[in-house]
Write a structure and sequence with these properties.
Elements: E1 2-3, H1 20-48, H2 51-79, H3 93-121, H4 128-149, H5 175-204, H6 209-236, H7 242-253, E2 258-269, E3 272-281, H8 285-292, E4 298-305
Parallel strand pairs: 3-4
Antiparallel strand pairs: 1-4, 2-3
Helix pairs in contact: 1-2, 1-4, 2-3, 2-5, 3-5, 3-6, 4-5, 5-6
Length: about 300
Amino acid sequence: MARSDPANLTHSHSYLAPTHDENARRTLWVVMLTAVMMVGEIVAGYVTGSMALLADGFHMATHAGALTIAAGAYAYAKRNAANPRFSFGTGKVGDLAGFASALILGIVALGIAVESAMRLVQPINVAFDQAVLVAVIGLVVNIVSALLLTGEPHHHGHDHGHDHHQGHAVRHQDNNLRAAYMHVLADALTSVLAIIALLAGRYLGWIWLDPVMGIVGAAVIARWSWNLMFDTATVLLDTADGPLVEEVRESVERAGDARIVDLHVWQIGPDAHAAIVSVVGAADGDTIRARLGAIHELAHVTIECR
């Protein structure tokens, strides 16, 4: 029979990160900044006839789209936080948006790699001075955007004596904010590599370095995309967090009067996990709940005493 604390029978199922509203505001600012830069580059490209400006403007449009997904996810999660249709709240909406953004980031990397390979085979004339100016402006915008997105307070680790591996801290991350930051970082990386390649082409005549840098940048961005996709998919598929599972098991069984026969632990928000714990033994539900109370990651616990 499942037992729970009567005081918690109608508790809230809102498991958004404590910094949700702050992260949403920061992301919205970056969306607007990126959109302004994107429109400016496209308009300037048409006026001046510069393909470099047009290409960079439309490339930035893909990042603006991904950042808009991130901003929309924050709004949707907040608006539906108390919606009973979401049994465990909307804390994972950000992970869904992060997964979508990771896909977009991967497509961008593929596009850069293909275009770079084509230019390596068939070099084209590059307006170095104009292109460097575009890359520098883009880099400045991305640095400002990155500074806006890195204002999230660092997360606190365990304070009850358990030393978990570094990956244990990943579950505290807001993957939606992380996805937005990755898009900004990818744009900054391409700008830096472009500046290096363009200066080398302008002063050393190394025309080949521009597409080579493009391929290097695409490989790095693809790696970031894969890591983000893997981490968000882990959350979406309710993959168990090994160290946290072991911590729950140790907390319940350490007194020797209870043994876990069925255990499910999964993430329901950036700072929250749910657990279903089935035990046999002399310990009752209140005792088990008290033991698990020291694990601050657990926000929703169901206990079954057989």
